[in-house]
Structure formats: C-alpha cells, structure tokens
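User: Here's a structure from my thesis project, written as structure tokens. My advisor, Dr. K., wants to see whether a designed sequence matches the one we expressed. Can you design one independently, without my sequence as a hint?
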C-alpha cells in the first residue's frame, strides 16, 4: 500500500519497467520514490526550493530554517502555511526586517538539492544561539548496535524503493522520532524540526542516520548541542575534526556487530 503524507501526497509512484535477470528480460511494476519540489517563502518573498520527499513538510521547513540560522526557536515563526498540494510553504517571521534583498527581490529562483549546495542571493543576520555540547562520559556500544537493528527495521520507504535516507532521534535507549527522505540532510532536518516544534531538550539525545557523515551534517547536529552522531556510513575528515573540537561523539560504520569510533 502506498503511504500518504498528512496533506495526502503520494511518497511512492508505481511505474512499468523492464527487468533483466538471469539472461531474461521481463515487464514488471516497480515502486519509485517521489521527488517533490517545495518552495519556501519568507515574509511573502521567495527564499529557496527544497527537493524532498513530500511528507512532514512543516517539520522540514522549521528544521531547515533553524539550520540556516533564520530562527532559533519555534516562536520566531508567526505562521507557517503549507499549500494543500505541498508545493509552497509560506512562513511569516516575527522579525519582519530580517532580510535585505538584492534590490527588492531574490535575483534567481535556484534550487537547493536533496544533498547540498547554496540556493539564494540574500543577506541576513545569522542567529547565533547554539548551546554547547555536554559530552557523554561513556557510550554503551552494544546498545548502539541494538538501536541500529531497530532503526534499520523502521526503514519502510527504503525497503519499498531503495531510494531514501533514514534519520532518527534517540534518547539512548529507544527511537523517539524516525523520518525518511530522498536527501540525508532533509531527513535530519525533519527530526530536528519536530524536536523544535515540540520544545524537546536535545542536550542528551542521539542522532542516527544512514547517510555519510559530512561536515555539514556534523554542523547541524553541533548547532543543536546534540552529543552523539551515529551512522552506518563513513565520516569525512572535516567531520571528524569538527567532532573532536566540539566534543561530539562521532561513530560510523555501525553494521552488524561492529562500529568505528572517531571521536
């Protein structure tokens, strides 16, 4: 059965394909993940387009704006309206003068991909309100391995399509939030956006992800004061350097009964 988001947008599309296996070609039906375009408007001005999976879009908007330094709390947003087709999000900020546009509009409507990249020509004051990390004294590695077993079982969209990344927030004992998206950044923004909307204390939480641990991913986690970042994939050298500098517990290649401790 196809899953729906809260605004009733298909996350999966079934298409006809040809499959080649063991020397024979067959016509089959296949499920592919939907790539959705979400345009975000701030104070009625176009800001950016995110390419994402069309679910939990409100959480994505809040998480993304917090990561970009536009907001520091959910209260910085006066209103957030997402059109019924999920293609546009209109955000009203309490601070009406936060942006100084080039002229009186954004120069071009560029897209922010599901991975990385910059997508706008505006100048704005970054909100610097990042809590310090409280390093974890000692991690239970067997608990991490067990958490990842649960985490991997929750990957429904990945099981159906193989086309998404997964991300979860944990208290170190159980999964609190779980989200999937075509972009590893988006999946992270969704769980962080949900935490922001619910006013959750992140100082003792863990982030689990399927994606590569880049400096951008580490930065988003460090900005929230989250002490532990875990992945079944590899880190980059810059992510390791950042983790060591800020006291972030960074663990990669959590697979089967093994893992690598980088910080």
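Assistant: Designed independently from the structure alone:
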């Amino acid at each position: 059965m196809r899953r729906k988001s809260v605004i009733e947008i298909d996350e999966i599309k079934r298409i006809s394909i040809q499959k080649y296996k063991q020397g024979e070609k067959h016509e089959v039906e296949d499920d592919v993940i939907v790539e959705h375009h979400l345009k975000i408007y701030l104070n009625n001005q176009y800001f950016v387009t995110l390419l994402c999976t069309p679910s939990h879009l409100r959480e994505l908007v809040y998480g993304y704006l917090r990561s970009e330094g536009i907001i520091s709390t959910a209260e910085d947003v006066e209103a957030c309206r997402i059109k019924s087709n999920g293609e546009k999000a209109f955000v009203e900020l309490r601070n009406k003068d936060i942006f100084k546009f080039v002229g009186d509009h954004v120069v071009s409507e560029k897209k922010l991909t599901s991975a990385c990249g910059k997508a706008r020509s505006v100048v704005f004051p970054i909100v610097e309100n990042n809590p310090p990390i409280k390093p974890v004294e000692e991690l239970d590695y067997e608990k991490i391995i067990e958490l990842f077993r649960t985490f991997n079982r929750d990957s429904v969209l990945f099981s159906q399509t193989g086309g998404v990344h997964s991300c979860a927030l944990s208290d170190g004992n159980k999964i609190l939030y779980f989200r999937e998206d075509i972009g590893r950044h988006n999946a992270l923004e969704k769980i962080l956006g949900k935490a922001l909307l619910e006013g959750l204390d992140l100082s003792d939480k863990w982030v689990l992800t399927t994606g590569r641990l880049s400096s951008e991913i580490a930065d988003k986690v460090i900005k929230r004061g989250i002490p532990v970042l875990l992945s079944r994939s590899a880190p980059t050298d810059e992510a390791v350097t950042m983790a060591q500098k800020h006291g972030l517990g960074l663990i990669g290649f959590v697979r089967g009964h093994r893992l690598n401790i980088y910080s």
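When you compare it with your expressed construct, this may help: Helices lie at 57-67, 141-153, 156-161, 184-198, 215-223, 237-246.
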